[in-house]
Design a protein that fits this description.
Blueprint: E1 5-6, E2 12-13, H1 22-37, E3 41-45, E4 51-54, H2 56-62, H3 66-69, H4 80-96, E5 100-108, E6 111-123, E7 129-138, H5 140-198, H6 205-234, E8 242-245, H7 246-256, H8 258-264, E9 267-270, E10 275-278, H9 280-296, E11 303-311, E12 314-321, H10 351-361, E13 366-370, E14 376-382
Parallel strand pairs: 9-11
Antiparallel strand pairs: 1-2, 3-4, 3-7, 5-6, 6-7, 8-10, 11-12, 12-14, 13-14
Helix pairs in contact: 5-6, 6-10, 7-9, 9-10
Amino acid sequence: MTQPYRDSENRYSDTNYQSPMAPAATTLERLYTFAEAIPQLVWMAEPDGAFTYFNKRWIAATGLSIEASKGDGWQRIVHPEDRATTIDHWEQHRRDGKDYELEHRLLTQNGERWMLTRAVAVRDKDEKIIGWFGTVTDIDEHKRATAELQKLVVELEKTSLQARESRNELKELAHTVAYELQSQMRTITSVLRMLSVRYKGRMGEDADNFISQALGGGKSVERSLDGLWILSQIEKPVLDRKLCNMQEILEQAKYNVQDLIDERQANISADRLPEISANAMQIEYLLQQLLENAITFSSGTPTIHCSAIKRDNRYTFALADSGIGFDMMDAERIFAMYFRLDKNTQGTGMGLTICRRIVEAHGGRIWAKSEPGKGTVIYFTLD
């Protein structure tokens, strides 16, 4: 590459600068002008890789003079850990005549900094390489920001993993505690139920009331433990499904709330329900919870009907009641954790939330339609 002469103060001189190839010389002159105008560090080299030109920004950034940078002098400012890679990379691309690009560290006046070096071959009209034009861009802030971001990502992943492990441990604990307490509470409620029948009226009215209150509280705790146990099962990554009869599951759910059915003299009917692939225990809890709500939120004699319609190879189940209903503004909120339409009723506010989790775990969705004073219909699908 024909070069202009530059004096010790980095000024151009036309002395000894004559080009036998006017078009190439014109191209080079434009490159020199461009090199001094852009904000990057710029260098140029001969076809054989000998560095012959550096712009003012190179000198200011590196502290090396033109003469000190020429030849292989520039290599001394490449970070020792990156020097061999930089030289090998440059030599390989120079020999192949391919564009050069590399991120590496340079030792500048401002200390060690990450740089992006790019170079392209300058060719004449016959596509012969007559030199190389290279730029060096400071990417230190970007590089360090990226490294910091990667560090944060690693820390976040570590924290996320710890959180998942803690959550899994809590799930196992909840599952174990709920299972252990369930059997104990069933024993307690069974004894209380036996006392309420065998000794009713024999120990006085107060004793009957105490036993009744204790039995009611025991049943409430039992339901909460059932919900907790079901919730711990829902969170498992693989749902345990089997072919089960929805009609039989409904009958079991009715049996579970028979005391409430008898107390309120509820009328429960159903169409012929299909067989489905599902987790029977979870679906039983779902129907039991929906029946309890339908009976609880009825002002008179509760009337409840369960039906199923098949569309596009998927069943949509509906449980309609004659209850007090609610405003559709609350249709989504009723499935939120701890939300209760009536603050005076007993319960944890978790029942419908667990119902939604069950349905979603089965790949379906659940929703409600209601009107104050005209009852409610709960719809759900199972995939």
